[in-house]
DNA sequence: CATGGAATTAAACAGTGTTCAATTAAAAAA
DNA sequence: TTTTTTAATTGAACACTGTTTAATTCCATG
């Protein structure tokens, strides 16, 4: 076939991302198939290469969708969160875990997809990733008595801390198998760390 | 061919693990090929299925080898470590990072391989994984004024904290891209956490 | 209506994991 | 020693991948 008018370029792009995202959720990264994703969208594999340029870019687009959903999930959780600092931090961390648990395959796909340094990430995809970090920046960094640079470093370190708990938990890795409440452990660690970085007047 | 006497069952097993481990180091998990690993060992794919029972068990065996090397690496680093608590903790965390950095592909393969709950892990492979945790248990837990249960929980949480920093760093993930010394951040976080769990007389 | 250009596909290629009948070598039995 | 049994090893088949490219088919424009 040739140019088909049943979908505009943008519609087609979104259609394929949607189909791939759903398939990733069903199968997980290891059993994902671009062929199958295209098939379900009613197109053939080649179309993916046309639209995205390659499999890596397609996977990046799928993961960007996950980042958006994840950000929205966190924002939603923060609406109902308590007003005190510890309460908000706990809500944030538990929402982080909640999204991962309720969307295991697509959450893990974010980290399963290793992107070669050679291929460049579109600014749109970059923004999706930054969006998540910026939520934590807003919630945490502003309340600290640190200069911006130190606060940024600490926030990223806190994200790594929470990520570590969540990743080991969901991969069923040895370290957290017997732990009943990994999210609670992450919350505790984050709060312990934060007390070290509060100015006396804040603690 | 039939039964060949050039390798005993144990030798063959080790030969294949060695070959697979080397290939994993060269290519990484995504581009690993059991066929190629067997080829390099001078056998055909079927042999892997004979010896290990399936691809999953083969990958588990390869990763067990990594765990042994990793444990040895940590023990070696602890020999030259300072005697004070903070110094030993720092040495441990930096050795953790050092192994991962110097063996990126085989280190990441540990977490890339998702093991279905249905397949059971041989006690030998379990021991390889426990061995690593037990090093941290020995170094950290015994110095804390906690009961065994709480200490175990905390140690695993600390491992998750360090793992998170290391994983985000090596995957080139958004959160730690600009961080110059991720290991140092992990060390700082671990020490900050530990001060919260020391009895007054120890701090 | 024709024609050029762009979207879409089908087919080909080189790989993969997995299974299993056929083969072959060594060990056991005669 | 010769034969038979047993077990290790392979090769081929199957159904899949991702990736590239020539051929097709549709649409918009002249």
Short descriptors:
homodimer, 203 residues, 9 helices, DNA-binding
Compact summary:
By secondary structure, chain A is mainly alpha-helical.
How would you describe this protein?
Two copies of one chain form a homodimer. The first copy, chain A, is an all-alpha fold. Chain A has a domain at 63-202: Tetracycline Repressor, domain 2. Helices cover 70% and strands 0% of the residues of chain A. The first copy, chain A, binds a DNA duplex (30 and 30 nucleotides) through residues 1-5, 9, 33-35, 43-47, 49-50, 54-55.
What is the secondary structure topology, with strand pairs?
The structure is a homodimer.
Chain A: H1 9-27, H2 34-41, H3 45-52, H4 55-79, H5 85-102, H6 104-112, H7 123-140, H8 148-170, H9 182-195
The first copy, chain A, binds a DNA duplex (30 and 30 nucleotides) through helix 3.
Can you tell me the CATH class of one domain in chain A? Mainly Alpha
CATH superfamily of one domain in chain A: Tetracycline Repressor, domain 2
CATH topology of one domain in chain A: Tetracycline Repressor, domain 2
Low-pLDDT segments, ≥5 res of chain A: none
**Assembly classification:** homodimer
Q: In percent, how much strand structure appears in the residues of chain A?
A: under 5%
How many extended strands of chain A? 0
User: Largest interface, by Cβ-Cβ below 8 angstroms: which chains and how many residues each?
Assistant: A-B, 40 and 39 residues
- How many DSSP helices of chain A? 9
Distance between the termini of chain A: 67 Å
Give the mean pLDDT of chain A: 93
The rough form of chain A would be described as elongated
Rg over CA atoms of chain A: 19 Å
């Amino acid at each position: 076939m040739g140019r088909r008018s049943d979908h505009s370029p943008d519609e087609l792009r979104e259609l394929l991302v949607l189909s791939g995202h759903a398939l990733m959720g069903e199968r997980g990264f290891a059993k994902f198939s671009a062929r199958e994703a295209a098939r379900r969208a009613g197109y053939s594999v080649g179309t993916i290469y046309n639209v995205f340029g390659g499999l890596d870019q397609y996977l990046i687009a799928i993961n960007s969708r996950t980042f958006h959903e994840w950000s929205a999930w966190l924002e939603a959780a923060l609406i109902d969160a308590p007003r005190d600092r510890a309460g908000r931090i706990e809500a944030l961390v538990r929402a982080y875990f909640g999204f991962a648990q309720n969307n295991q395959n697509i959450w893990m796909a974010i980290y399963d997809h290793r992107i070669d340094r050679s291929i460049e990430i579109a600014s749109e995809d970059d923004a999706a990733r930054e969006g998540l970090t910026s939520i934590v920046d807003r919630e945490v960094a502003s309340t600290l008595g640190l200069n911006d640079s130190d606060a940024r470093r600490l926030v990223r370190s806190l994200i790594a801390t929470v990520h570590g708990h969540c990743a080991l938990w969901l991969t069923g890795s040895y370290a957290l198998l017997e732990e009943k409440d990994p999210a609670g452990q992450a919350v505790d660690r984050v709060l312990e760390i934060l007390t070290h970085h509060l100015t006396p007047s804040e603690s």
